[in-house]
Design a protein that fits this description.
With about 110 residues, the protein is α+β, with helices and mostly antiparallel strands. The chain has one domain. The protein contains two helices and six strands, in the order E-E-E-E-H-H-E-E. A hairpin with a 3-residue loop joins strand 2 and strand 3.
Amino acid sequence: MMIELFAPGYLFEVDVNGYARGFHVGVVCRDDCFPTNIQFSAFDDFSDTWFSIPLPGKLWTRAKSDGLEEICRRAISHAIKNGWFGVSGNHEYGTFDETAEVWPGMLEGV
């Protein structure tokens, strides 16, 4: 099975316990290069926060094409709601919430 980081992604900041923290969000591609997980990594010098959220199969094609930004925004909202940005270590969380709000913050494409 081939595993690769699908290059397009975003940098963004969220408030974690009163402090702005930088993160990268993108997708991990498996199964014939389709994105199967949304992956978050802390983008700062003092954190080891990394986590992923599995995507339902019906969203794989959309996440690889024009739907990546919306899917990332929904994943950010889902992670904020569950407090995952403040948890150190490497984690894989439950299933992607397709009904999560579209996070309105600023994303910088990378």
